[in-house]
Records
---
Amino acid sequence: MSAHVPIPTLRALVSVWAALIVLTGTTVGVSFLELGEWNVVVALLIALFKASLVAWVFMGIRHSNAMTRLFCVAGLVWLCIMMFITFSDYTTRGWTYQAQPWSHPKAGGSH
Amino acid sequence: MLARLLFLADLELFPPAASAQAGPIDDLYWFEVIVSAIMTVLIFAAIVLFAWKYRRRPGVEAVQIEGSTPLELTWSILPFLVMLVMFGWGAQLYFAAQQPPKDAMEIFVTGKQWMWKIQYPDGNREIDELHVPVGQPVKLTMASEDVIHSFSIPAFRIRHDVVPGHYDSVWFTPTKPGRYHLFCTEYCGNQHAGMIGWVTVMDQRAYNNWASGGGSQGTLAEQGEKLFQQFGCATCHLLDQQGRCPVLRDLYNKPVQLSDGRTVLADDAYLRESILEPNAKIVRGFEPNVMPNFRGQVSEENVIQLIGYIKSLSPQTPASQQGSQQPPVVLAPPGTPAKASPKPKPAPGR
Amino acid sequence: MATLAHHSAETEIEPVDYLNVEFGWKSWLLTTDHKRIAMLYLISITLMFFVGGAAAVAFRINLLEPEGIFAPETYNRLFSMHGIVMVFFFLVPSIPATLANFFIPIMIGAKDLAFPRVNLLSWYLYVIGAAFTMYAVLRGGVDTGWTFYTPYSSTYSNSYVLAAAFGVFTAGFSSILTGLNFIVTVHKMRAPGMTWSRLPLFVWSNYATGLIQVLGTPVLAITLLLLAFERIAKVGIFDPNIGGDPILFQHLFWFYSHPAVYIMILPGMGVISEIMACFSRKRVFGYNFVAFSSMAIAVLSFVVWGHHMFLTGESMYTGIAFSILSFLVAVPSAIKVFNWTATMYKGSVSFDTPMLYAFGFIGLFTIGGLTGLFLASLATDVATHGTYFIVAHFHYVMVGGMVMAFLGGVHFWWPKMTGRMYPEAWSKFAALIIFLGFNLTFFPQFILGYLGMPRRYHAYPPEFQMLNVLSTAGASVLGIGYLIPIVYMLWSLKYGPKAGNNPWGATGLEWKIQSPPTTFNFDETPIVTEEAYNYGEAEGVHG
Amino acid sequence: MADATVPVSHEPTAEETHLRHHFANSAQQTDASTLGMWTFLITEVLFFGGMFMAYAIYRATFPDAFASTSEYMNVILGGTNTAVLICSSLTMVLAVRAAQLSSRKGLILFLILTMIFGTIFLVIKGFEYTDKWREHLVPGFNFHYAPAQFEHNAQILFFLYFCMTGMHAVHMIVGLGLLTFLIVQAQRRVFNANYFAPVEMIGLYWHFVDIVWIFLFPLLYLIGHRT
């Protein structure tokens, strides 16, 4: 009566490993391109993809039930809640607290 | 009996309302008190009624009731609608509390363990005492030298944290002459309870007398100018021609182009940052690392004086909006400091 | 434990239960039985409660005189100790680690929590955390308040911040492990037939609590760690004088600490659901809504933390958003209050001590909750923030609510936990004293608050004296009120009448087994065939 | 069970050997420990999350200072370490697979390989830390930053760098301890195709630590090192 987790094939594991190594190379490579703010986005997307690969195959999420999958993303979702709300504060007040942002609605961002 | 005892103890149960803000906030407060009281009475009454009426009696069994979705929805949605009123009302007052009128008189407050230092544009300085003329909107620009303080005048129903590293601001229009408490309401260390001061609201004439009475060391701008010389700022910030550093004349409240392409407004917060950490935002066309960091070299009060001086270098800004915001008080000689009347925003409430 | 051992030794014919199955230090300190761990927790949190309570009485005495009686250092350390001990070492673990630890497995028909050894570890972490905090207190105390606001805590305070913060950090892991254990237990250990819709509401509320503990507490842990590093290395992560941002600390801190107030109150709400059903002999009105509201509170509690920061220079727009979200989280709490009240409708209400505490809870929590609206509403928050109004508000919720629920729960389940009844007359008297003392202590503080008296002042302007004296008088009454149950509960361990398996005629699996339960709770895994609170078919006890 | 070999019949079932008293059967036990592990990982996400948030806030606030620090980040060492950790993840999952196949030797071999990769990671990390010390980049104790205008703000980044990688390294060390425990257990023939839950759980932990690094690497080493 062990847990009925299908045993993964060697080929599946090794190809995921290879994909991860290639993606690591890619993310380093892309970081040398001049993409402006997109560098962050691309790097994070690749990281997210790599993390999903590890979770999906290595950590066996692909064979898990819905509850485990829910728990798997719950932490990430909560982290996003924390970041989103905190950032909403920072972006709407600016770093240096401006004494009267309402009295010069246009002066700040006219570039 | 109790009432007499309270009377004898000269007990206040409600604070005086001495600012234009106090009335509207009290109105909301009483609205909330009444709603809460009604809810409390209803729930208490229901508990007492049910507990008594359905008390355990021999032979009487409880009637099993599952629940009722319509009822649940009713008592979820109805209270929420009432709460929406509180929200909207509160948010509107909060929004107004963040917008000082353009003719507000500007006073500077520095919190420091454990005192409030007050600086007036005409150069007067006080500790733990704030004098304001009745009917004149006052905007406080506040800074902290050390930890977080919170500036609170209960009689005015105003309060704002004074967070180090920022300028915080709060404004009010005093309406009743008198002396009122000024508290620090954010725990700031040992003598937190000692950070109590007084606000004195005086009529305009008394205020003028008071303002001219102090042995002033010159206006805020003059004090700032002294510091400007003392720190040697003038060697690089030349008044009328380009030096190694930007010209400060006509700078205040103007947009400034930075070397990284951004544009910022040269307001109090920007000027403060540029004094304390000059490299944070470099003006286009200038080199970084020319000016030393003044963090730790000048106190927040000095910064306020320096900003006062810089402001005085931009006496009449042509842009009408900014011009009207420019408080003329800054340059007015002592004795005729404030524009007492006409207020663009008549004090609401009482 | 001496009393317990003694008692069971002299009555040899008694059946074996979890208390008399083994004796000696080791059998307690190395136990993995959730019931024994719950009792260990009960003893430890009671000790901490009296430490925190003593501090409270002491600083209330200081406030008899406007200029204060003690030195400001003493006062500041007393209120900080009161806050830290009460929040992290009493309120957070109070019901989850004791009553829920004891009863969740029984209520769902399990033999133990999912991870018994982790459960024991969690108690040890609690003890270590408490020891560090007490060390800080004995060395001279900590004076930052329980919020540890930077930069005061990281740069300016010269008290024992690090030891106290480490204590809280460790206790945080204790809380995380408790929550983790509950979540897994409720998911995986339910007896056959114990579906989610049959779970007692106490289990629901503790499940929701577990979610908050797991999702929120790690953020507190890392925040305190960053604070400690800043204090040690003097790097400006939160101190603006060296480049940091104190508001970031508040965001991180309140991301945990606002949900934490629901860690404190949700289990209490679960207790009240049990008590209201039992002593009205009715199914809880609107079971689904009460259960759902616990989950709604758990989720919404994570998006309202900014209402602690309306005045810090937080963005006005964020403030407005937080304000409406805070009103939103009031709705599920209101749902609960209405449903408890409606539960009595056409019931058969008796006035046993747990029910008196439940009445107290509903009344005081209602006031506490409604005054919360003043603080969610932006303009009145400006007028009351940082004053005694806040102090009164959260004491109405935490003490008026949570402590009432805790005492109600302890009285309710005492016969099951110990097999003995407590003296009824004394317990009713104590409940009354506590209720009166509580209101006398904290109601004047609402008035003081709107008058503007700031919290954490060791001295105050003389016009506030009368109300402060009233409050201190109430605190003494309250203090005595809390001592009475200790005395008669200990007394009842030996002299209390035998309780029997189901003294209240309650439904629920915990009442179907022996009192006190055996080590494995059930001889055979029960099969659940009925809804929770099936009082329609349960036979009554009192005629 | 698609491509699984049939478990050898004489092996004891988990019920006989490892079922703890309070579980009904070992499926329930395994389910509980899996869910428990995932719940624990949620707490880990939020634990690291606090630091990620601080990083994000300060990076958004001081973009120039943060960009300037990238010169001091060793992309080669960081990249190598990423590859090393990915390899260790592979060997970890192979160890679990070996356990599923009841291959004791394979299990021990792959666990040892995982430990070796983990140790290599820590050694490289150690070299990086030494470099940082030599370059006076340890905040609070030994910090002198070259573009002086960024000194304060760069110090925050290095502070976060040390916090995040340090916490990660602590998790690695804990992981190595757990792996040692597994190897000892495996030597004692505790695991077989019917019972390998501890290997699986510790595997989840190890992969999680790997995932944390997968995010740390671009955030600390790559972003902004061109701008």
Note: The two ends of chain C are 36 Å apart (CA to CA).
---
Amino acid sequence: MSPELSVVTTAIALPFVGAAATPLIYRWFGERTGYAAAALALVSFGLLATQLGEYGTVAAPWIPSIGVALRFTVDGWALLFALLASGIGVLVFTYSAAYMHGGHNLQRYYAALLAFMGSILGVALAADLVVVFLFWELTSLASFVLIGHHTTDGESRYAARMAMLVTVGGGLCLLAGLLVLSIAARQALGTASFDLATMLANDEAMRSALRDQGLFVPALVLIAIAAAAKSAQVPLHFWLPNAMVAPTPVSAFLHSATMVKVGVYFVGRLRPLLSGPEWTLLFATLGLVTMTVGALLAVASTDTKELLAYSTASHLGLMVAGFGFGAVAGGEAGAFHLLNHALFKAPLFLVAGILAHEAGSRSLDNMSGLRRELPVTAAIAVVAGLSMAGIPPFNGFYSKELLFEAAYEFGHEAGGLAWLYPAVATVASIFTVLYSLKFLAVFFGERRAPQKTVPRPPTALVVPPAVLALGVLVVSAVPQFAVDLIVQGAVDATARGQPEFSVHFPPEHVTPPLLMSGVAIVGGVAAYPVTDRVARAIETVRDSTVLIRPSGWYDRALSETERAGAHVGPLVHTGVLRTYVVWGLATVSALVLAGYVATSASVPAVDGLGVPLIVALVLLIALLAGFAVPTAPSHVAGVLTLSILGFVLAIFYIVASAPDLALTQLVVETLVLLIFLLVLQRLPEFYADLDRFVVGRDVVLSLVVGVMAFVSTLLVSPDPAADPTELARYYVTEAVPEGGGTNVVNVVLVDFRGFDTMGELVVITIAAVSVLVLVTMRTRGETQ
Amino acid sequence: MSFLVVAPVVVAIAGVVLAFLVSRWPRVQRATSAATGAVYAGTVATAVWRLVLGPDAPGAAAYQLGGHPAPFGITLVLDGLSAFMLVVAAVVGLASITFSVVFVERDNQRVYYHPLFHCLLLGVTGAFLTGDLFNLFVWFEVMLMASYVFVAFYGGARHTAAAVRYLVLNVVGSALMLLGIGGLYAVTGTLNMADMARRLADPAASGIDPAPVVGLSALLLVVFALKAGLVPFQFWVPAAYTTAPLPVTAMLAGVTKKVGVYAIVRLYFTVLAGAAIPVDVLGVAGDSPLSFLAPVLAAMGVASIVVGGLGAVSRDTLEGTFAYSSVGQVGFIVVPVAIAAASTGQLRQIALVAALVYALHHSLAKSLLFLSAAAVSDATGTNRVRDVGGLAGRSPVLAGAFFVGILSLVGLPPLAGFFGKFFVFDVSIRWYATAPGWAPLAVFLSLLAGALLTIVYTTRTWTGCFWGAETPAVEGSVVDGRQLAVLVALAAVVVAVGVGFDPVYRFAETAATAATERGDYVEVVFPDGGGAA
Amino acid sequence: MKTTARIAVPIILVLAVSLFFQGHNLPGGGFIGGVLTTTAFVLVYVAYGLDYLEAGVLDREVDPGTGIFEHRSVTAYRRTFVLGLTIVVGSGLAGLLLGGSFLAQDYVILHDVPIYHEVELASALVFDLGVYLVVVGGLLTILSVVGAE
Amino acid sequence: MSVALAAVVGGLFAVGTFLLLRRNLVRVVWGIAVITQAANVYLIAMGGVQAPTHDLVPVLEGHGSEVPQTADPVVQALVLTAIVISFGTTALALALSFRAYEENGSIDVAEWGEEG
């Protein structure tokens, strides 16, 4: 069976249609728009669920000229992600309806949230690189709008811009990476292609094509940067905690099933294509470092959402590391943990939302013992929290075991330094347990809260996390059910070959991974009493330098860029004309001379002056007049010298057999002189200090420009004895028969090249108009 | 039907004359001016469809002005490349003149605003269509003269100073252009570009020595770079763009800048590419003027990306940001042109497509943004980023149009800008793949950095002006509905180009083919093999 | 100076007109004729000042305060160059409408005309007339405005 | 190929460049004028300059008469167009200079600031 194109596209398009129609929906439903959106999400979920087991690829044309199509692949991995996004979407919309009560800008909120969900579905199902990128970027865009929901809040704007910069900036790398893949596909598949499904089907050929062209590592690195940006891997993890300024439902959605999973999802997607030694080195390292750093930072957090945000980064690291390992268990860890993390992290965020909503605080320090007032919430938190900590028999434990297994196998196989991988994974897990306990502490111990009474949360706020916690329990109790339903499919899609996958609990015998879990749990619980000291130690290290502090280097880089930017303008554009002229003329001279040198253009043999004596004499006078201009003591003297130059050139035109030019030059020169004098009589004399150094420099540049013009003339001016060009001959012979005039130049001007003359007249017209404009607008002034 | 080739010029110059003739009746003048803009757009559309794109179109057509056979008269050529550029000019021109009518103060519109605007359009049209090198100079001058006046239009200290600098640089440019054109005439014996291409491809037959052509063409390259605002010839850009009336700035950034790019492509790829001239200097070696062009243009492009991108990050005003952004973005347009010059075959073709698609996107998006900035200043009385805030709440429609504009600049799919970025990245990587080395890598990294800077400055304008609390300037401000209509229309075009990209791609491909298929170009101008040469 | 002007101006004007007409066959033409005509006006201006040029020759009261934009003589100059431009474009279009192409020129030679025996009528003369008018109008606008500054 | 012509073109370009680099706006405008003149001389040089004779003038004897070899009319036409255009530009440059002086209160171009 293959999937239905119409079903898949409808499932993806529905949220977008809903987003576009939000103003209408909002008019009918008002604040209950959340329920309408939930219904839409439910429909999408339902449509996608019908495709379970119907795996394959479908396509509709988009840009046939370059082989881009709206191509969608339905497989276990895509469906797992899409169902999570739409399923949790239903709950998040339901929760929003209550949580956002009385909020502002709800239309934009729901529209963006729907578009966000649609984009995630798109990324999950897309099987064309361009379409993948399209939806990938749309998720960034939607999250920008959502994170910046409170537009009047500076922190919101800061975080939104940060998320945009990191994720869209990472998107640039993704685009580059995808293009590298398409280039490889040209060789591997024989045609230019953006068809991801076909690439995955021909992974062997793709890999060898990439390696042939030396593009394997670049592709890997580019895609890793993109995935790291999206999935908040170190050192691009800092945007995620900042993104918690978004309304809590958005955070829950963003962290559990959507935005941040996109990177991990895509890593899984490309795993069959690109995995190898470099892949493992890159992703396993990246993942484990993030897992550890995230866990440490979570321990040091003082805010519920901040803790959960770092925890998300840490768990994303776990998934990335899982996919990084080549072992079967690695892929299983990544795929299974994607599901498990979504199931436990979403309710935890929703719980944090309930706490903020009811207890009025997000601070971990001033809340504890809330289980009495919020028993249901506490129960949900415990279930999800223990799953997060990886405590058996909760589902988080299973997937973490798989990671341990993969890491252990890797260490065992590679030996040496590779043993660091399982060691680091274990250490990170100790801190995971620790921060999970820290979070749960708000419900236990002595009663402390900023408010005296903590009201019971409305049902609409409790039901969604409860449903998710129930999901945690179901998967915990019968993990094989989830595996059979969808996780196996996901594992198949993210691995080469067909690995069989089953989960057993309780474990039949003691294995090294089990021991690692044991160490993690015991270590975490043992460290719990000294949490505060651990947290302070982490804080000290974290704040020791800008480069380590999350978003420290981002802030530094951004402010440095802005500072540099503020300088560049005034530095480059000083307003000093001479600078501009120097740059322009120096460049042009260099280029032109280089051009002559490059082609070894040769100067023809020089024979005397090359012009008749009379011409040479006139030219000499012209040159002298020219040199006299800069030395003129006053404006009037200079203008007169300039006119002399002009008149001498008129004589030159006469001796060069150009009477029309001579006439024109004479009268024009007269008029120019007149205008010059008219203007100059109103301008003050001005004597700038003649700095020897400046003059010297200017002389050098002038000489260079002069040489450029000199060489150009010498190189190309024709031999006087040479035949006239075909063009010249034609004009002379055809002037009378074609143009009916004996003055060839005039015939050329009004007839053969009348179009030039027309343009020239427009220039004169503009010149005339320009003085009118200049005069009129002066009296009028700038009223812009 | 070949009259259609000259029709855009005729309409544009008729627009100039009409605008003068009805200047006594301001209302009529405004209506006429906008109507001429629409007629111009219609004419261009008809000409392009009937001659280039339509099912029965010949693909290209030439028009011999005055009925004189090429190369003796002046030839106008409408081929894929000029068609592509003309369409850009028509869209931006129509948007800009319509916007002007409702934006520029009525009294100021009476000060020859409309005749000058059509002169600008005329100059651009002539430059895109002409097949004669000297005629290109003439239309450049027309275009420049009109832009000088516009830069000085609101005669303030800043405006006149900017205009003087702009003028001086460009007059020097014009002198250099004459040097280049005169030299090429002396070397090849012709001014007709098709004829020149023909002669250069077979220098022995015409008895010419093409060696100086590389140096001479560098003169023209510099002039075109000056028009395009490439570093180090960009100095006039920020001041000119921020002082001209903003609808005209939309034209300057959207169209006249592209004239420079067009001229580079036309001259080098259509005219000079066929010349077999061994080039070898400072490690640059090759066998045509293109091998000289490639490193020069790549360096200019990269420098533009850096200077423009960085400069845009911290500007005080919206138009200042976008003016610097234009410097950077034109770098994104010429980098693929450089890549095209450095490569052959399919990569050259696709690189030119990349340049054209990016140019199209930049024209649309940047004019949209400049016009948005105009609407903002009209509504709030200020354009300082720090004095504006919360506009998104005040005018969601304006915000939407602006958002589309900046997202297209960032290159978010499925907007026009995405495909620009997509192809530019594509050819950059393909260049690296075919010729791995530090140069392609450096170019790619600078593209990456430039794109990152684009996100930095666009998000800054957005979060600064459109989000946040309403500032006193924004409170109670009302955005003119007619201005919004123009903005929405332009934004719709930006979206439509991206969503329905297939025909746009095919058009760009036609244009790129026209640019490189020298034989076709010569064939169109000399249908019977023409001339004696 | 005034005497010179009184004598020179008519001569220049006649010369200008003849240069304009002979332009197609001898050195001269619309542009040179136009510039020369302008020079004649300018000579008047230099000799007598703008007031004379505008009040005396063109019979107009001068009031610099009202702004050059509405100045009647400037208006006249402006009309001149607009007319010239119209003629140029019109003649270009005429070539098109008469079955030729845009900017096509033609000429006829009339035989048996008294005195001249044969007279050539070139449509290019119309085009050149446009050139002449644009130049005269344009340059005079520039000069009078710059002068009035 | 003419050293004399090349020297004049080169020399005038050098003078023009030197003037363009001055701080005095008036001198900058002179620079423009000189460079444009130089470009015109250059264009004439591109047509080749020979000893002046009556025959070389591109004005023919009359209709139907024999066509002599003349100086290159192409470059003359180009220069004529260029002169006109540069005249327009110079006029604009002067008017603009005056306005710029009025607005900025100085003809020292180095003193005019730039913002934005």
Note: The CA atoms of residues 137 and 352 of chain B lie 24 Å apart.
